[in-house]
Design goal:
This protein has about 80 residues and is mainly beta. About 10% of the residues lie in helices and about 35% in strands. It contains 1 helix and 7 strands. It has one helix spanning about 35-40, and strands at about 5, 5-15, 20-25, 30, 45, 55, 65-70. The longest helix is centred in the middle third of the chain and has 8 residues, at about 35-40.
């Protein structure tokens, strides 16, 4: 089972400059879970302000791994 860091983007509401914010897993997860992670992430919207390192989803798919933002976004 190959484990890698999962990266994606989450939609942002309330920012005129940015529509998406990059996110990543806090730890490597099994690569065969990437599609299921994408399905979960696609349903999430974040409001501004967003700080780098904010938790977007805790314990995604019961893996014990969190999804966190990798960029800060102001209003």
């Amino acid at each position: 089972m190959v484990k890698k860091y999962y990266t994606s983007v989450v939609r942002v509401k309330g920012s005129k400059k940015y529509k998406m914010v990059p996110v990543k897993s806090s730890e490597p997860i099994a690569q065969d879970l990437f599609i299921e992670c994408s399905k979960v992430i696609s349903r999430i919207y974040l409001g501004v302000p967003i700080e780098s390192g904010d938790e977007v989803c805790s314990n995604i798919l019961n893996t014990g791994v969190d999804i966190i933002t990798t960029r800060s976004i102001e209003n």
